[in-house]
Design brief:
Blueprint (H helix, E strand, L loop, with lengths): L1 E3 L5 H6 L23 E8 L7 E6 L16 E5 L4 E6 L6 E3 L11 E10 L2 E10 L5 E10 L9 E11 L5 E8 L2 E2 L6 E4 L7 E12 L1 H7 L11 E9 L1 H12 L20 E2 L3 E16 L18
Parallel strand pairs: 2-17
Antiparallel strand pairs: 1-14, 2-3, 3-6, 4-5, 4-7, 5-6, 7-8, 8-16, 9-10, 10-14, 11-12, 11-13, 11-15, 15-17
Length: about 325
Amino acid sequence: MSISNNRFLPALACLCFVLFTGCSEEVDVHTRSMDRCYLVVEAMLTDCADRPQTVLLTESIDYFEEEKPPVVSGAMVSVSDGKAVYHYAEVPSGSGCYVGPEGFHGTPGNTYTLSIDAVVGGSRNHYEAVSKMEEPGFEVQAVDYMYLGKTLPQADSLWNVAVWGQDKPMTSYYYVSAQLNDAVFPLGLSLVMDDKYFNGQKVVCFPITTLYQTAATRNQYGDCGKYLETGDVFTLNVYSVPEDYFTFYTGFISSSVGAAVPMLQSQPANCPTNVTGGDAVGYFVACSSSSASVVIDNPFRPYYQKAFGGFSN
């Protein structure tokens, strides 16, 4: 099951809701020189106290390499808010995934610094990245789904996802992801957008994305690619991100390696990054979030008629 960025484009004109999946400016993509090794950083700090805060560290590999990139294990990772330092632990050991203390989360308006001491390419280096957590720009009020296939799951099955919510009267940029039960959709199955054409307005039953399940996505992404079943819980997460992260993501997707997990499995040479201190790519972003969930009561039904606007067949 994947989030498709192009299946709902015909609906945009009539709804005046624009999704950007390309670059805001032209990006020339070519491979990085492999005479050096780059640290690849995938780090997000949210304002959700009930969700783990994670940092994923890997090493860069050749552009045409099909193997998974090696993880960076044994690093010292921490996040500071200027008053206290929060140390991350590698969980599980040897995974390259570092998790913050239980209950640790960010606060909108604060600025955070990610610090990393790691051995990359045989050399120990210190890396840093700074990100300010934006105020929430969009309130997700509800999410719903509709099956677009036949009465039984097929080899390829398609669901449409609609969202209800309120945009705040300020220019905002969003990273939109999802979660199916405990499976959080990775970067390559998510999308970014801005609020250029719906700034400050109420959004009603907008078909924000589709969930497209194939055997290939199930094999690659595990439970993120499963068929919807009765009792499943689907959650839509909208993160308010700074403009530079929006630019990073669109450049990342335009490099045509957006489905790589971990991110940036092959390195575009000029994809933006806010990581300094050594040869590094990737991004650290602090972002506020808004979410809504729906329990799957019938995987094959159309949208329910909602009290504040919706439709059904």
